[in-house]
């Protein structure tokens, strides 16, 4: 069988470029090879160690105490509405003390983005009893913002039902987590002399 073989066209094939350090390029145009600095064995090695917060006594956080400042996550408000729980009252029932729910700009932005379906959550978030915390970062990704905030200031309790956020906050010592279980609020990693008994 004689005939011309069909040539398969290759897509996204780029022309090969020679290296800038190639011998064929004129010496004046050729890129210089990086010069490795020799390490001085007698030089003192510096490494940055994160400073341990002074408010922690091992895992015990001495900055926690009434009135409690509780950082609220977007899904915590939505699940509270689903469970028909009053946010401020249920927090007080859980901790037996005055609670100030705090809402960051990015959490507020997330609720606003959810649209008309979550207008009840937005109305709750705009409650005058809620303390508004300004955010200095770009974007409205709340999880990173909350994690960064509790790493810097260990005076907050984080209220969330998000498994991924809980996992990230458990790695930070001295930050309790509030969650919803059995149609009531519960607290995790709280010192025993504070708050309600665990169920």
Describe what you observe in this structure.
The longest helix has 11 residues, at 142-152. α1 crosses α4 (119-125) and α3 (105-114) packs antiparallel against α4 (119-125). With 199 residues, the protein is of the alpha/beta class. The strands form two sheets. It has a six-stranded mixed β-sheet, sandwiched between helices. A two-stranded antiparallel ribbon has the order 1-2. The mean pLDDT is 84. β6 (156-159), α6 (163-170) and β7 form a beta-alpha-beta unit. It contains six helices and eight strands, in the order βββααβααβαβαββ.
Concise overview:
Residues 68-167 form the PIN domain. The protein is an alpha/beta fold and 199 residues long. It has helices at residues 74-82, 87-95, 105-114, 119-125, 142-152, 163-170, and strands at 56-57, 60-61, 68-72, 99-104, 131-133, 156-159, 177-181, 184-188.
Which key terms come to mind for this protein?
two-stranded antiparallel ribbon, 6 helices, 199 residues, six-stranded mixed beta sheet, flat, 16% strand, 8 strands, alpha/beta
Note the topology.
Elements lengths: L55 E2 L2 E2 L6 E5 L1 H9 L4 H9 L3 E6 H10 L4 H7 L5 E3 L8 H11 L3 E4 L3 H8 L6 E5 L2 E5 L11
Parallel strand pairs: 3-4, 3-6, 4-5, 6-7
Antiparallel strand pairs: 1-2, 7-8
> What separation lies between the terminal Cα atoms?
83 Å
Average pLDDT confidence is: 84
Biggest sheet, open or closed, and with what strands and sense?
A: 6 strands, mixed
Q: How are helices and strands ordered from N to C?
A: EEEHHEHHEHEHEE
Secondary structure: helix percent: 25-40%
Structure classification: alpha/beta
How much strand? 15-25%
Q: In order across it, which strands form the biggest sheet? A: 5-4-3-6-7-8
Tell me the Rg in angstroms: 28 Å
């Amino acid at each position: 069988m004689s005939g011309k073989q069909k040539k398969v066209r290759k897509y996204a094939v780029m022309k090969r470029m020679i290296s800038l350090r190639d011998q064929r390029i004129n010496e004046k145009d050729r890129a210089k090879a990086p010069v490795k600095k020799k390490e001085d064995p007698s030089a003192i090695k510096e490494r940055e160690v994160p400073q341990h917060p002074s408010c922690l006594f091992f895992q015990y956080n001495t900055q926690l105490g009434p009135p409690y400042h509780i950082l609220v996550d977007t899904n915590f408000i939505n699940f509270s509405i689903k469970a028909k729980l009053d946010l401020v009252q249920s927090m007080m029932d859980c901790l037996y003390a005055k609670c100030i729910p705090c809402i960051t700009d990015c959490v507020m932005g997330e609720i606003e983005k959810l649209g008309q379906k979550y207008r009840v959550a937005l109305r709750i978030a705009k409650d005058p009893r809620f303390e508004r915390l300004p955010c200095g970062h770009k974007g409205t990704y709340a999880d990173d913002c909350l994690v960064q905030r509790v790493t810097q200031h260990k005076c907050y309790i984080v209220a969330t039902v998000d498994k991924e956020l809980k996992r990230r906050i458990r790695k930070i010592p001295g930050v309790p987590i509030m969650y919803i279980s059995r149609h009531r609020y519960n607290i995790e990693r709280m010192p025993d002399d504070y708050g309600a008994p665990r169920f």
